[in-house]
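tool_call: predict_structure(chain=1)
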Amino acid sequence: MSGPIRQPSRTPTLADVAAAAGVSLSTASLAFSGNKPVSEATRGRVLSAAGSLGYTGPNPLARNLRQGRSGVVGIAVGPLSTAFRDPAALPMMDAVSQVLEDEGLGLLLMGDSAEHARLPLDAVIYQICGQETWAAYDDLVARGVPLVVVEGPAWPGATFIDIDHRRGAAEVATHLHDLGHRRVATLTLQESHPQREREAGLREVFPDAVRIGRCVSDLTAAQELTSAFLSEPTDVTAVVCQSDVQAAAVVIEARRRGLTVPDDLSVAGFDGVPTPWLDLELTTVVQPFAEKGRATATAALHRIEGEAVDDVVLPVTLHVGASTGRVST
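tool_result:
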């Protein structure tokens, strides 16, 4: 090439680069992609022309769209604030994002609006705890968008990633029964697959467990329900909660009323998340957040490639902390 390359008045394209370098459009494309061998001299000429024109390379989004891909996986988490407040959501989403990032895909956090699901997404992960219907579901199925559902509901056409809620709840209930507890109460999540399975596991051991109430995994909401329950005389010696945040609230409220945990009241949770606002370690059912996130992202990747993916149910582990003890005699 001789003399400076005249800058085009519009945004430069690959065709401009090819013309400036004196090569075909396909050769210029190969020089950028590296998919097939191009001589170093030719590649150098193309990159030099691109630099002179201010061309930074092919648009990856346009390339993906030509291939029927957007390079983005959506994850529906309900109100977006939930994704940043719920300690059980963060480690799972972190694992999902790491797997997708390693494969060159982005992750889009979505609310429960059906409009979000109409975006050009390669797959959608559904993780709206407590909500068992979603207006976007029929549209996603009709468009053939791969769908991975975390902890229910088990919709037709979706891959289901779950944990063994029932066994975990039964194990913590058995632990309390072995400590001599016979009258227990339970604070549950809102109506959902995890709520039903965790309550069913508890009632395998304590069929007459008293239900305190239902609420989201929120410290204030759980403390209000516990306050109302403890305001009345009760012979309950243990409270089994469906989240560690709920369990922390029960401990806080019990202490506020002068009760000692676990001497006066044993408290157990579920999830295995950090509770730094407590000065004791909770007895809880630990779920494998990172493994669940990796299984979810991996299922999405396989579904994107058109592969069949089996449902996954991951095991949980009982962790005995300082919040449960033997019934006082």
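agent: The chain is about 40% helix and 15% strand. Proceeding to next step.
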